[in-house]
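Consider this record:
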Amino acid sequence: MAIDPDEADVSGERVKAERSMAGLVSDLAAEAILLIRQEMTLLKTELSEKFSQAGQGIGLLVAGGVLAFSAWLVLLAAAVLGLALVLPPWLAALIVGLAVLAIGGVLLFIGKKRLEPGSLVPQRTLRSLREDQTWLTERLR
C-alpha cells in the first residue's frame, strides 16, 4: 500500500497542530500559576501595609483617648479651682485643659480616618486581579 503524500501532510500538520495546541495550553497553565503566585505575593504585601496603617490608627486613637481623658481631668480640676477661689488660677487650668482636649480631638480624628473601611481595602490587588481576568479571558478566546 502506498501512502498518499497529501494524507501524510494532513496527518503531519494535525500532529503539529495538536502539539502546538498542547504547548499553548501548557504555557497558559504555567503562566496562570505564575500569575496566581504573583497575585498572592502582592496581596500579602498590600495587606501587611494595611495592617500597619490600622495599627497606627489604633495607636493614635488610644493616644487621643488618653489625652482627651487627661484633658477632662484637667477641666474638672479647673472647675473645682474656679468654684473654690474665683481667681485667675482656674483660668490657667482651663486654658491648659482646652489645649490638651484639642490635641486629643485631633489625634482621635486622624486615627478614625486611618481606620475607615475604604482605606483598608487592598485596591492594587483588586485592580490587578481585574486586569488578570481580562487577560485570561482574551487568551482563552
Remarks:
- Residues 5-140 form one domain.
